[in-house]
What does this fold into?
Amino acid sequence: MDVISHYCRIETWTANLATGVFQLGPLACEYHQLSDQGEFGLHNLVKCYDAEYRNHVLELYEVAAMRPSSFCFSTTIVHGNGSHIPVMCIGESSSFSDDGGGAINGVFVFPQFKLTDKSSLTTQ
It folds into this structure.
């Protein structure tokens, strides 16, 4: 068994800066409670994040969209049933062009447990 997969699930994602479209894999769509079509705007992506950290996450993406940079954040995804799923994101922006193009690429890391509230852990 892969040691990392015992502790977490990892999935790549990308964002096209010319269109503002994020492409997520099926796991990220499921955890972010998005349809399985896989293409979304930034607002759709972060609206499920803990409100305490949402503006900070938006600022990180905004900086990455303006200049080549790297970033990392962690927060929780808040589901309607009251559960909280921890998520960590690592990303970087690159390939900027004069016509507004560029990309942000990264990974989501989802630990193999969820929070029933901000302080209680359960395994998945």
Notes: The beta strands are 8-16, 21-24, 39-40, 70-78, 84-94, 103-111, 113-115, 121-123. The first strand starts at residue 8 and ends at 16.
